[in-house]
Write the structure tokens for this entry.
Amino acid sequence: MNNYKNICWGAALGILLLLGACTKKLNTNLTDPNGLAISSLAGKDVFAQALNTTVTNKVGNNISSFPGDNFDYAQEWMGYWSRNSGYSASGVGAHIEVYAMIFSDANGIWQSLYHNIYDYNFVISHSSTGSILPGAARLMRAMVFQDLTDQFGNIPYSQAALANASTTPAYDSATAIYKKLVAQVDSAITEISGSQSTADDASDIMFKGSKSSWLAFANTIKLRMLLRQVPNVYAPTDPYISGELANVTAQGGFLGAGQDAVMNPGYSDASEEQNPFWGVYGYEPGSTSGYQNFNYFGANTTAVDSLNSTSDPRVGYFFNQSSGGVYSGNPLGSPLIGASQFGKGLLQSPSAPALLFSASQSFFMQAEAVQRGMLSGDVAALFRQGVEESFRYLGIPNAQSAADAFISGSTDPGVNLAVSGNPLATILNQKWVAECGLDGLEAYADYRRTGLPALYAPNATGVPQERLLYPETEYTLNSANVNAQNENSQSATAMKLFWAK
Amino acid sequence: MYADATIGYDNWVFLHGSFRNDWTSILDPKNRSFSYPSVDASAVLSDKLELLKGGSISFLKVRVGYAGTGNVSLDNYKTLGVMGNIAAGTQVGGFSAQIPNYGAYAIYPITTVASGFPFGSGPNSYTQSFTAVQNGLKPEHTQSLETGFELGLFRNRVNLEATYYNQVSSNQTIPLQTSQASGIQTYVTNAGKINNSGIELDLHLTPFLKFGDFRFDLDANFAYQNSRVVNIAGGSALLDQINYGTTSLGGIYAIAGKSYPQILTTDFNRDPNGRIIVDGTTGLPSINPNPVDEGQANYKYFFGTSPHFSYKGVTLSAVFDYRGGAKILNEEGNVFDFAGASISDAANRQAFIIPNSVINNGTAGHPNYAPNTNVPITSLNANASAALYWWTLIYSGVGAPYVTSAAFIKLREISLSYSIPKRLLGTQPIVKDLSVSLIGRNLFMWRPKTNIWSDPEFSTNATGNAVGYTTEFQTPPTRILSATISATIF
């Protein structure tokens, strides 16, 4: 009884009801008003960005990045560009110069290309089937995948870019990926052929919904995929190659004269609005000289010496005259004071369209295919058109006659097919010249496939890598799958891709 | 909704319980409501148990408690849900204007206008988020058990307080890092279960010794804590917890079955005995791209003591601290080595043979490692000396050499103070109390010999999850000396 009296309630029961009047409001505002929910977007809302990202990844990534977050390494290895004096090489920049990029150097390329593919996936699955977008996005996705596998070999493909549905995607063999990519281009061609013009065409900043342009581009990309595998995987007359090419020629041709695959969402000379190449390597808004946004790179002796030795008029378009009034370059890894910088053919204007794939390249690929007996045609004419288109793109006056005069007036076997004992070497040499500063990745692939052009290595410390090492992020975040590739040492840089020579 | 009740019995047994139900608007409607109870009991045994009375035990209290807590940790995670974060027209050049992002909108990732868009009058265009969020994200849930006692001996001259705790947190809301080949970088999901347990001991000896006016008090404390990641769902064994720009050296990770967080770094390829494998021609090692586990970043053992002497108006006290059981990645060391400003490369400017290195004379499949006695490092770059090449391109690119024990003993503080006796102040009416003191803080530190760099407590982000590394961007630790005169006037 006594104890019972001692029981006391230390604290009262307190109940606070916080809900009450708020109930109704809780269902709203789940999505941030600062952006749009993915569910409210369609393919047309993403396609222009995805195209612009593809070309930006190719020609110039953001200023703050290293010279390894994009394909600049290929520009250095192919003898187009090299480090200017005033810069010291560190990290990836130094690794490039000794052909020894390490695992972490490729993180940026891997990340931005796969995110780009992820966006193309969205366009493919969120566009109305009647429009040109699904087919065009499928083609673009195949092209970006080819760029990835051409750099890394085996890569995630069938499980890639599926977001949280596959956070550790398995790798597919590069050989199998190539087969699938060619089939994807075929599907894209079918989709594009069957499409109608819709309001979504407005998001197509490259071809404005033009079916014929997209088909020509698709055929050209398909030729690029097939040619890459000749002659080291397939003989030029292999039934697989001839069958796939017959399909292409039946669909209409490749990118023709004046038909560069360029895009322009409305570049202008304003901050963040500049042409992506200009935005990185050009000048700040409002100026065409003076402070350069990123002048880490200048001319490489390999390209300049080659252009000088053939008296190629393009030298003054690829590069500027150096302070000594001549065109001179930096040997890779050994900058010289006063080397030539980028010229007006590369730095055209801040509002110029960005070049994804040139007509010149299309003609050189056709010339090689004809020379190898894969296609029928006139090698000399296709070769000449390749050079003419290169002159035209760079803005040389009277491009056609200037190019013809350059070719016919030259006694250099690297320029004039008529005096060349090795037409393939001439074609690939001129293709290499035409790609100077514009498509180092393609030149790098040709070099690994054919060994052409026969570059000399100015710093004599080795030869370009056969591939990039997988990014460090894969070893931390997808380790089982990346380790299964057995390419885990620095020496894997010498492992040839399946189509390499 | 919250309810709380305490019941006391006879003033020596207390039972306390609470119940709480939260609703949060930032989760999916069906997961918004979550509730958690807690209950604890304590008994002051010294008040009741006859056998304790009159002996040397002056106070004894035991307690045990269980608590559940729910939590939603989506607050202001800046990178969640927004890609690029660059509004149209903002200046870049390495810096972008961030759109603030709130936990309130975290479960539905949004897309923002891509960089540069719209160009002029062209179309607007978007890119998908680098983050995906699990459908039906649930609140985090923590269950903890805590038990302990407080013991006073010899008229409370000796006080000992002991606590044991064990806490299990499940449904951790975690930004799981994905392979970037998935197109995204982060998957926010209920992924982790973490177990924290530990012991805390507090001892107060007041006074420990006393002779006349001389008095010596001693406080000491010891703690042991163990954090273990029980599991991480989603098949990924690694969870990157920090984003500090570079991944070339290493990172801080949660790894299932290990202490949390662990430091993983890049390392040279090593033979089974841990010796660096070098090339037989160049003398250079190769890098192992698979990150190597170097140990945990959080301290496991804590010991502190603070003696306190006083004699008449003079007081001398000090605070000593020991922490141990953790590693630290001294990223700043890497920067010094790269720049040629470190103690390591000051002494090694010639080509040298990498100490304790081996050469594989066998094949990759059947290695045969022999000590390297004659192949010094060489440069692969004609423009760089072997030493320059080594320090700038090889050694400074690997994280393992920069991981050391983070243990230390510190004399955190000494203070000496003197209260001027009242009689010396005389009869003047203004100053009533006057004391002077000298205080030194962060005075001495003893570190393991391997840690040639800095105070491990000065990591870049000592408060968040990203403990365990230093960079060259942080301010160095400082030693503070101060003198104080304080007076009470009027």
